[in-house]
Amino acid sequence: MEEGKEGRKKKEREVEEEKGEEKRKVGRPSKAEGMRDRVYSLSLIDAFKRGEKRKEIDALQADIFKKSIKVLKSPEKQLEKQPEKQEEAGLSEILREVKEGFKEVKAELREVKEGKAEMREWMEDMRKRLDSLKKRVQEIEKSRGREEKEEGVEERKEEEKKLAYAGEIDSKSINNIMSANNKPRSPRLNGTQRTATRSREQQQNGEKEKGRDEGIRRKDEENRRTCMIKRKKSYDLNRKCNYNLNTNWLHLCLTRYKCACVGVYCDQGIFSYPGVKAKEKGIEVLRKDIEDIVGATARVEGIRSIEKKDKKGKEMVWVRLASVGEKIEVMKGKAKLRERREWIVDDLTEKERRIEWWIRKREGRKVRVRYMKIWIEEKLWVWDEIKDELREWHGKKVREWKGLLKCGRHGKQREEFQGETKRMGCDVPK
């Protein structure tokens, strides 16, 4: 049995040499033979890469057959079939145009420089000519002075000869005539004469200083009078107006930060409008501008100047509207004035602002702030730098803070202000 098995194993089946096939063993295949076949097989990734390489080779072959061997002589056809060259040609044309433009600019700059050089040369020539003319004028003046001196000397000599020949005057008189013709000499003075002249000079200087002081004093008085007159006029205008909140007067005034803009103040409001004059033409212009800019139909009844001008000479006036409702419509459209750099600053007069301050004071707390200290309800709080905190001051007594109200302290002003504050329902300070 064992010999039979060994014989079977040794038997082999040979492949025919004509077919070119390999020799294989006869019998049942083992596991090792199956593993040998798998070693020679490809993975999926390698198969995929081979397929991509084949596609690239096929595409290259197709492109080779598509290209023609013909030579294109006309450049237009070349550009049509090759868009890349078209773009290059366009860029080259643009570069040429840019270079030509640079050349033109350079030529213009050269011309300008040449013109500047010519102007400098011309200016230098003019200066030289002026210098030469000045020198000539000086020489002419000197020559004239010499000629005049020579003529005067000759005339004096002739006069001396005539007088000496006539024998009318002596040599002393001749010397006196010569001294009279020349500049007057200061005579020699005694001690008393010198003291007298000094006292006279001192008196004259003192009178001059007094005159100067009087002139300065007069100018100061005139300036004060003009200021007082202006203040009186403005005060009279303010007194003539009604201080009620339901007034319809508008008052033109300068804004603080932009002198070119003029604002229209009312007793409780401001509508800006530059350069309005107190005439009928100004009324018509103001009506049109109110309708166009603000978008409100306001009837202007009158305008009155207040004799104030800005740096450009524009007048400031008061404007009276027909009703309070129209004024309210104008005030609603104040935001539209920003395009013209004109705006409404505040909608209250100075007195009405003080009244509002007293109302706020009655409703809230009284506070005053200074450097590193603050008063709250008449109590002083100080900032402690060491502890870095705010602490109450327990030292000396703190004075009550009175003083925001500067108007209406005495006389008729006080009575008027007390009446207005009572109408508003405010407490009047004593």
UniProtKB/TrEMBL annotation:
Region of interest (Disordered), ranges: 1-34, 133-160, 173-219
Q: Where is the composition biased (Basic and acidic residues)?
A: 12-34, 198-219
Q: Where is the composition biased (Polar residues)?
A: 173-196
Q: Indicate what this protein is called per its UniProt record.
A: Uncharacterized protein
- Origin organism is Solenopsis invicta (Red imported fire ant)
